[in-house]
Design brief:
This protein is an alpha/beta fold. The protein contains six helices and seven strands, in the order αββαβαβαβαββα. It has a single domain, classed as Rossmann fold (3-Layer(aba) Sandwich), CATH 3.40.50. The protein is globular, with a radius of gyration of 17 Å.
Length: 176
């Protein structure tokens, strides 16, 4: 019987080990294969903006590096509450790149509900839009604004997504 090869078989050992790649490993593979192709597209008014797979990987590593610098590690919980934007997706992938736990919350939740769920989940930090961050009373180690917002109280997402730092190392299988 002939063994059937898959596209992934060509990349096993170079981009991932085991039967299936993780989401972060798949992103690395896609950045390699489709570096200049759009990964995310969004509109600001009538103007279309795209982020390529290589740009996406760089921004995801920027978020992961930022989180690592804040002491976030595998298993730590981080709330992600925002509108459907590239910033939300980049944050999600950046949190996962460190094997931290994404606690996704509906952007339409009341501040009281977000506060209660942050306490229940034990989240150390939150990524959210400014209007949500301003209404919260829960105590977080740090808050990241997904919106462009120049306020020293919040870390501005724009400043970390463009960080050109070395990528955070992916956790090994033994660490997972």
């Amino acid at each position: 019987m002939i063994e059937k090869k898959t596209v992934l078989d060509r990349y096993r050992g170079e981009f991932f080990e085991g039967e299936w790649p993780s989401i972060t490993e798949m992103l690395k593979l896609n950045a390699h294969r489709y570096s200049d192709r759009p990964a995310f597209s969004h509109f600001e008014g009538n103007e279309k903006h795209s982020i390529t797979f290589s740009e996406l990987l760089e921004r995801v590593y920027g978020v992961a590096t930022f989180l690592k610098s804040k002491g976030i590690k595998q298993g730590d919980r981080i709330i992600l509450n925002g509108k459907n934007t590239p910033a939300w997706g980049i944050s999600y992938l950046g949190i996962q790149a460190l094997s931290a736990v994404v606690v996704p919350l509906d952007n339409q939740m009341t501040a009281d509900r977000v506060d209660a769920l942050s306490q229940f989940s034990g989240a150390r930090a939150i990524f959210a839009d400014n209007d949500v961050l301003e209404r919260l009373s829960a105590d977080f180690e740090f808050k990241v604004s997904l919106s462009k917002f120049d306020n020293a109280e919040y870390v501005d997402f724009e400043s970390i997504k463009s960080a050109k730092k070395a990528p955070a190392p992916l956790p090994t299988e033994d660490e997972v």
